[in-house]
Amino acid sequence: MEILRAVRVGDIVSGTITQVGRPHGAAVRLDGWLGLASADIGPLDVSWCRLPDEVIQVGRRVTAEVIDVDEERGRIGLSLAATENPELWAFLKGLRPGEVLGGEVADVQRFGVFVALDDGPPHPVYPGVGFISIPELSWRHFDEVSEVVEVGQRVTCSVLCFDTYQGEARLSLRALQPDPFQGFADAAREGQEFCGTVTKLVPFGVFVRVVEGIEGLVPLDELGSMPIETEQVVQVGDRVKVTIISLDRDARRLLLSRKKAGSDPLPP
């Protein structure tokens, strides 16, 4: 569609909502010659701090930022959240993956950590504009977030992406730390034996810590020579001899065997 070639991502446009869809997206008739093209606001681009029903109604005038131009479909994608919080949007849009940011832990939740960034504006809803999900906190296993960070702690993180749905910078703490699994993989080999400690029992096997920070799975059929229940063989805390049967660097996956390990007694 010829008209779309003059539209760029980042342009600010105005129009009128003509239809509200479900779940809570909206069709918009843009002003002037852009009204010849189809434009819509996706359900995730309505608002970061208000309910969709408070923001989009048929007949309402809106000003939004162009976030997508699809010439094949003749469609312009819009974001109301961008113009609702222009300072925050501009800051987040300017971030680049891998960029290093500093800040202070503002809140710790079971699902992740909010970070108040040094150079970022405040968030209209959350305690901080930066967010670290649980897997991105550390390479090493931990049971409680408080084992890694606490409120008020200074942190330095790597930017993963701009989460346009939540209006936050997704960050990683572990990206700036060496991955212990890769160091382990440099020296380990299939068939190598270890004396490890059972850390967790699961229906499909047991996890064994072979060295500090490195755990592998012993599948159920590698626990013994006969069909068994996990609890019949080992308990958490037991010392066991295991052999590496598979090591996947990319997936960070270590598979172990107890029945293939040697029969020499374990060290005290």
From TrEMBL:
The keyword Ribonucleoprotein applies. Residues 10-81, 98-174, 191-259 form the S1 motif domain. Keywords: Ribonucleoprotein, Ribosomal protein. GO terms for biological process: translation. One of its GO terms (cellular component) is cytosolic small ribosomal subunit. One of its GO terms (molecular function) is structural constituent of ribosome. The keyword Ribosomal protein applies. Belongs to the bacterial ribosomal protein bS1 family. PANTHER family: 30S RIBOSOMAL PROTEIN S1, SMALL RIBOSOMAL SUBUNIT PROTEIN BS1C. This is Small subunit ribosomal protein S1.
